[in-house]
Design a protein that fits this description.
Layout lengths: L18 E7 L4 H9 L4 H9 L1 E6 L6 H10 L3 H4 L34 H6 L5 E4 L12 E4 L12 E2 L3 H4 L8 H4 L13 H25 L4 E6 L1 H9 L13 H30 L2 E6 L3 E3 L4 E3 L1 H7 L13 H8 L7 H6 L7 H5 L12 E7 L2 E6 L8 H13 L11 E6 H4 L11 E5 L3 E2 L5 H4 L5 E3 L8 E3 L1 E7 L7 E2 L3 E2 L3 H8 L4 E2 L21 E2 L16 H12 L4
Parallel strand pairs: 1-6, 1-7, 2-18, 2-19, 3-4, 3-6, 9-14, 20-21
Antiparallel strand pairs: 2-17, 4-5, 7-17, 8-16, 9-15, 10-11, 11-13, 12-13
GO molecular function: hydrolase activity
Protein name: Phosphodiesterase
Pfam family, one: Phosphodiest
């Protein structure tokens, strides 16, 4: 537990103490921000770009919420904090469920490393955090915390202190249909833009107003608020801003585009108000995202089909999969809800179906199998007990075979790069990650989990996302602004792990030597450059891990993540 020290509330007027405001835009991308700013939709963000520093913020591998925000909070790579996805990779459990993603669901209690909350708190700094992903369940911190969208539906323990929930009774954690696991009326239809944007604007209003209330009246040295709404609209309505989408000029898509732009205008207005308060409090401003966004892949590559055809994965194909089973297993992808399956098609989808059934894999003879990590990135696990030649030789042969894969339609090589996990990650958790990480050409998605991928009839399937949804990529954003920040404009690419040490540098807190990120010192004015302090002897308290059991609440969050396209 952290000791809470008495501290007087901040007074208005001249502020000499340095502070930091971080505004997270989940999935924020310059693919949207730059053209919108140029058109005058984002005057506040545009001001920061013109009067401060900005650039691409390289996300984690894979570029998804769980590892990315965890790397931001710890300043460390996924091999140290353990988050490669939303769940713990557990190869042994693959034999117990049809879904390769059958490990324990991870949350804030599983981050063993000190986060920015502990690092600042143990140095007497007060922190306010609102909706920072992977902060459920909230910890006791030197400050106040409102948890994130991974809070199970109906949970009451989403704030620290618990009484904070009563101070903001109108606060909303997520979209209405997000909290209902995407069971949308009328059942079976796609998300309706008018209803969606009405709901997401309400979430934005309540989150922003809560943030503005807390930033103005609470005592803080670091204020963090994350708007996950940006990720939602880009997942569901990327087609509205993608000129390559076939229906881009349809009236319905034009209306989606108007609603999309209006949302961003409103968001920029709230950001402007937050910046005003930051300037009153002598705070440096950082706007950042966990990953970027872009159009969906045009094809899906089935690595498990390739592994099966080449004898690495042995499957029992006697248990043939029929059309009904395929519909059940891929229903989420086409926005088909359980209610639609039940009420329209008369298909029962019991609990046991949704959480898994026995896999049709002959594990005793399977040497390698693949999981989709995100978009065009996948991983391959080895069954090392069955590999009777040096692992280097096995790996070399498999990788060589993988690089020989070409698209039958055009003869192009599909796999861009294959790397052993040790080349990408370091830390005690690396041994739990896939043995190989592979990267496909951008137009290919690295398959899907479950039997539908396992028993795919072809190496490649086309048009996996006919709705034109958006997908993640590695190119996130960072923007710094304040009286101590130089007017440098584009400042090049940085890593998401660099943000935490930059905050510590600015607040003059010793930077732990085991951080993987480096402080971004060249954003500061020459006469305001902080003194760099990094110490091998400086250590922070370890975090007690509370093991979380699989439960109905975990099941609901798992469904929620699946419907966003992460599973």
């Amino acid at each position: 537990m952290l000791k809470r020290e008495a501290k007087t509330r901040m007074e208005f007027g001249e502020e000499k103490q340095k502070r930091v405001l971080i505004v997270g835009l989940d999935g924020g991308t310059f693919e949207i921000i730059k053209p919108f700013a140029k058109k005058g939709y984002l005057p506040n963000i545009n001001r920061i770009m013109n009067q401060g520093c900005y650039g691409i913020l390289d996300s984690t591998i894979p570029p998804i919420t769980a590892p990315a925000w965890s790397s931001f909070m710890t300043g460390k790579n996924p091999g140290k904090h353990g988050f490669l996805h939303f769940f713990e990779f557990s190869p042994g459990e693959h034999q117990l469920a049809y879904n390769f993603y059958s490990g324990k669901f991870l949350n804030f209690s599983n981050i063993r490393e000190s986060t920015l909350f502990e690092l600042l708190g143990e140095n007497g700094k007060e922190v306010i955090s609102i909706n920072m992903p992977i902060t459920y369940p909230p910890r006791e911190i030197h400050g106040k915390m409102i948890s994130c969208w991974l809070t199970p539906p109906g949970a009451k323990n989403y704030t620290y202190p618990l009484s904070l929930r009563e101070e903001y009774p109108d606060y909303r954690i997520d979209l209405y249909f997000g909290e209902r696991m995407f069971t949308l009326p009328p059942a079976g239809k796609q998300v309706v833009a008018k209803e969606f944007f009405s709901d997401i604007n309400d979430v934005l209003d309540k989150r922003a107003k809560t943030a503005l209330s807390m930033i103005s009246k609470e005592s803080w040295d670091l204020f963090v608020v994350c708007f996950t709404e940006t990720d939602r609209i880009q997942h569901f309505f990327w087609r509205a801003i993608n000129p390559d989408y076939p229906g881009y000029n349809n009236p319905s898509v034009q209306e989606e585009r108007r609603l999309f732009m209006e949302f961003y205008k409103k968001l920029d207005g709230y950001i402007g108000e937050l910046i005003d308060w930051a300037e009153k409090r002598n705070a440096m401003v950082c706007i950042m995202s966990d990953h970027g966004f872009g159009p969906p892949p045009s094809k899906r590559f089935h690595m498990n089909y390739f592994l099966r055809e080449n004898g690495y994965l042995i499957a029992n194909q006697d248990n043939s999969i029929n059309c009904l089973e395929i519909l059940k297993e891929s229903a989420w992808q086409y926005k088909v809800s359980r209610a639609f399956l039940r009420d329209v098609l008369g298909i029962s989808t019991p609990k046991r179906f949704l959480i898994g059934k026995r896999a049709d894999v002959t594990w005793g003879y399977t040497m390698a199998w693949s999981v989709c990590l995100n978009n065009n990135i996948g991983g391959i696990f080895f069954n090392r007990k069955l590999i009777n030649i040096p692992i280097e030789n096995f790996t070399s042969k498999l990788v060589s075979t993988i690089f020989s894969i070409v698209d039958p339609e055009n003869g192009r090589q599909i796999v861009q790069q294959v790397l052993p996990r040790e080349k990408l990650f370091s830390g005690e958790k690396v041994s739990e990650f896939p043995d190989l990480i592979y990267f496909l050409e951008p137009e290919y998605e690295a398959g899907l989990p479950g039997k539908f991928d396992l028993f795919a009839k072809t190496l490649i399937s086309k048009n996996p996302y006919p709705s034109g949804r958006g997908n993640h990529n590695k190119a996130g954003i960072y923007l710094f602004y304040g009286k101590d920040i130089c007017t440098k404009g584009n400042s090049g690419n940085r890593s998401i792990m660099d943000i935490l040490p930059t905050i510590l540098l600015y607040l003059q807190i010793p930077i732990p030597d085991d951080l993987d990120g480096e402080a971004i010192s060249d954003i500061f004015r020459a006469d305001k450059k902080p003194i760099y302090s990094r110490s091998k002897n400086f250590s922070y308290k370890s975090i007690e891990v509370v093991e979380n059991e699989k439960s109905e609440s975990e099941k609901s969050i798992r469904d929620k993540i699946k419907n966003l396209g992460y599973l």
